[in-house]
Amino acid sequence: MVRKAPRRTAERILETTLQLFNRFGEPNVSTTLISAELRISPGNLYYHYPAKDELVTTLYGRYEQAVQPLLHAADEVRDVEDAWFFLHSLVERIWEYRFLYRDLNDLLSRNRRLETRVHALLQDKERALRALLGGMARSGALAIDPREVEATATSMAVVLTWWLSYEYVRDPRHALEPANAQAAALRGAHHVLHLLVPYLAAGQRAHLLALAGAYGGSRP
Question: What is the spatial distance between Cα 22 and Cα 117, in angstroms, rounded to a whole number?
């Protein structure tokens, strides 16, 4: 039987840090706590990541790598079914790195490098959402005045960015726990897509409502 090579310490640090940040919030997790959780010395941690900001920036880089291919997939969206799958997939990636969104204001106030990268990714999200609206309009799935596309895409980006904060405010002790991941992701996708209801063709609107009912996207 071939034995698996042990995971590198740097990788273990990132995995544990992500778990702790997601559970307790980045401001509440110290490098001392991370070291204790890993049962390594603080010096070992600092050897790989000299400051907590390095951990945050590295994790953000991984989030960027995970989400960029999904944003490119927006060009292929043609109807509600496609949009539902696209947004649900995007929300799942956001959930995996949820500390970035829950603690966004605090992180941006302390990390200039992160500020510029978040701004660039936000622009990419808005471009992807404009592409989604354009594809659905060309296919006849929705009818939207071209002058409304920009504002609608921005509104969708706002919901994507602050949806987790809303979930957290509603139920701070449980909302962001792993057991709630699937339900939260479905709600997030539904809330974003629901912004398109006024523009959807009748059949597409009915299909969206059916999807929300079948998957429990709306909150009971």
Answer: 20
